[in-house]
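Sequence in, structure out.
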Amino acid sequence: MVEQYIYRTKDEMGAAAANATGQIIKSAIRNKGQANIILSTGASQFPIFKHLVASKGIDWFKVVVFHLDEYIGIGADHPASFRKYLQERFIDKVSPLRSVYFVRGDSSDPAGECERLAVLIEAHPIDVACIGIGENGHLAFNDPPADFETEKPYIVVQPNETCRKQQLGEGWFAKLEDIPQQAISMSIRQILKSDHLIVTVPDMRKAKPAKNALEGPVTPECPASILRQHPNCSIFFDEPAASLLASER
């Protein structure tokens, strides 16, 4: 079941998504003594991170963080590294956390890294995942046609040209040729195992994939369409991103 929320600005969207995430985290800590969360990266997460790191009443030392994906061959100090993104925009602002389990894209054994992460995440059932929708409808680096069947928690994938151009357009790389051809990504099935999904979708460039995800068929050709099969999925839009939805006409 998908619940949709539309806000006038990205900042209002981010504040609402952060509040919803914070309530889930605090509830998990009250009930279990710990919250296990997934964080993603990219420009869509700027608004939620701004407000989440400023949230009151969260005992971050009782929070375990996983993240969605990382380029293969990129070190944690690379300007486009998702680990660097999370370290600077989130982890440094809320530390100390109980644990942070990064995807080590510069591992010499990507398949072994996937197996390492699989063991870790299977021991930490996820309470909430904060994710976005890509310009091609992707979730994490699961580009169309996405694998809806694999039960492996993390997989090696090849981001397609649309995905790579999005990374270029957001300013993470100087030119397309600099973007790695492979990445380690959390799988679709693993994302869906999260108890709650908080999805932030800002900007006009996300309007078409949002419409396809919510109003088109559920298909690997639009990976985000699978969100409609999750029992607790909340999607937060700003007005431009929601502009093509039938309910907004």
